[in-house]
Amino acid sequence: MAGIERTRSAEKGSARRPELGHQPYQMGKAVSAPAQYTPIQVRELLNSVPRICLSHLPTPLDLAPRLSERLGITLRIKREDCAGLTFGGNYARAVEFTLADALAANADAVIHGAAGQSNHCRQVAAGCARLGLECHLVVRNSSRTVHSRGNLLLDHLLGAVVHVVDAELGNGIEAEKSRLYERLSTANPHKNYYLYERDRISPLATLASAECFVEIFEQSTEPIDVVYLSSAGANQAGFLLARDLLGLKTTVIGVAPIDWDATTIIGRCYDAARALLGLPPAPLDPDSIENVSRYIGPGYAEPTPESLEAMTLAASHEAIVLDPVYTGKAFAALIADAEQGVMREGTRVIFVHTGGTPVFDLYGDDILKYLGLRA
User: Fold this and answer.
1) Both 143 and 173 in a single domain?
2) In this structure, is residue 174 part of a structural domain?
3) How far is Cα of residue 294 from the mean position of the Cα atoms in its chain?
4) Residue 35: pLDDT band by 50, 70, 90 thresholds?
C-alpha cells in the first residue's frame, strides 16, 4: 500500500420549531460546552485514528446566490458529492477510516451490506477496488434492486460480489452479513474476512463526519447559524461532536431518510466516537438532538412531492443535482423552514450535499411526472 497512507491536515409530528437566525436558538438545555479545542487540535484528535487517502478533500463550500435570494437566507452548499471515490458522497470520508481499520486487521476481504441501491456499499466497493481487497455486499431485495442501473451496476463494475437477500434494513441485513461472514470464513479458512459490524463501523463514520464539520468551519468566512443534512445516525453525530469540541452553538438539523430511533442512534454514535478519541464521557442531552422525521414520506427510498420540488428548485437555480432518497428530502426540510419563517431573513445556512446522484436515473418516471412531462 505504498503511497496510499497519509494524515490529513426526532420529532414525529408537524410542530413548528422556534425561529432560527443570527442568534441561534437552543432546544432544551445548552447544546454545547465552552470552547475546548481549536480546529487544529480537533484535527490532531481525529488524526490519532488510522486512515488512508482515498477521497478528494477538502470538498468545496459553494455560495448558492440564486437560492439564497429565493429563500431569503444566506445559503452555502458543502459539496460532499465532489469527494471522489466513484461519484462522490459523504461515505468517501468514512471509507478512509473503515478500510484503514480493515487493513490494520490484515483483512483480505470485506463484507458490508445495506439497501439494494446503497451509496455506502458503492463507496466501500470502490475503496476495496483501490486497495485490492475482495468485496462482498449483502443487499436487500426490493423493487429498486435493479442490477443494470444505479449503484448496483457500479458495484458489479467495481468487482464486488453481490448477495441479494430478502431481509429488512437494519437488524435483518446485519444478521445476513454475519451469516455470510460465518459461511465464507468456514469455506475459506486461509482468508481473513473483515465484517462491517455496526458497532465497529459507526464510531469511525462519526469521526469522518466530524472532520467534515471542521472543514466547513475552516472554509467559512462568517459564523454558521444552522446546518441541514440527511442523517439518522453517524453523520449527524459527527457534526454534533465537532461542534461541541469547537465550543460552537451552531444548530445541526438532521433530516431522517428512514424511520429509525434516530435520537438513540445518534447518542450512541456520539458516545462511541468520543471514547474512540480517548475523550471523557460527555453524553448528549437528547433534547439537543434535532432530527426531523416528517419528510420520510411513504417510506425509505420513496420520493415525495416535497423532495421532487426540492430537486427541481436546486437544479433550476444552482445546477445542483440532488437525489430523492436523501438530499432531496433534507433540502425539502430546509425549504420549508425558510418559507414558513422558521429561519429569519439572512440566516447563515449550510446544506450538506451528501451525494447519491448514481440513483438519479432510477427515478426518471417520478421526475418527469412531477415536471408534467409524463402522465
Assistant:
1) yes
2) yes
3) 18
4) low
Q: Three-class SS of residue 131?
A: helix
pLDDT at 271 over 80: yes
Sequence-distant (≥ 6) Cβ neighbours of residue 90 within 8 angstroms: 80, 83, 208, 209, 212, 235, 352, 354, 355
Yes or no: say if 50 and 104 are a contact pair by the CB < 8 Å rule.
yes
Grid cell listed for 73: 437566507
Q: How many separate domains does the chain show? A: 2
What are the CA-CA distances from residue 307 to residues 38, 166, 261, 280 (Å)?
37, 27, 22, 40
Question: Is 369's pLDDT higher than 50?
Answer: yes
C-alpha cell at 16: 413548528
Per the listing, cell 426540510 goes with 333
193-231: burial string, b at 16+ Cβ within 10 Å, e else:
bbbbebeebbbbbbbbbbbbbbbbbeeeeeebbbbbbbb
The pairing of beta strand 74-79 with beta strand 61-63 = antiparallel
Catalytic residues: 118
**CATH number, domain with residue 187:** 3.40.50.1100
pLDDT value of residue 33: 43
Q: What gap in Å lies between CA 365 and CA 328, rounded to an integer?
A: 16
pLDDT digits (tens, 9 = 90+) for 211-270: 999 999 999 999 999 999 999 999 999 999 999 999 999 999 999 999 989 999 999 999
**pLDDT grade for 287, boundaries at 50, 70 and 90:** confident
pTM for the model: 0.91
Contact indicator for 24, 226 with CB cutoff of 8 Å: yes
